[in-house]
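Give me structure tokens for this 116-residue protein.
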Amino acid sequence: MTRLTKTTLSILLVASLMVTTGCDNEGKGAGIGAGVGALAGGIIGNQSGNTAIGAGLGAAAGAATGAWVGARKDKNQLKAENEELRKELERREYEAEIQRLKAENEQLKADKEANN
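Here you go.
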């Protein structure tokens, strides 16, 4: 692999990692996948005589795969957050019902004492 090719692939890898800063999992997956894919594709392409095409194809395949994996992770995280919110809502509804029943109980006690 020529020095220029190594430098180009290194720049692609570092750039893809830098792009992922602050992204959601889908964006991070795409960036990391593109970088790793470009590196792997460049190495494979170099062996077959066309580093640039190998790097480009590897980057595209890696980005698509990384985005898919990241999107699945985002979806799973959102499902977990929704389940936690459902549990919190249920807990609050139970607490409200408990408070209502306590108030009703106190009113019944007060009515009982008033009737005695």
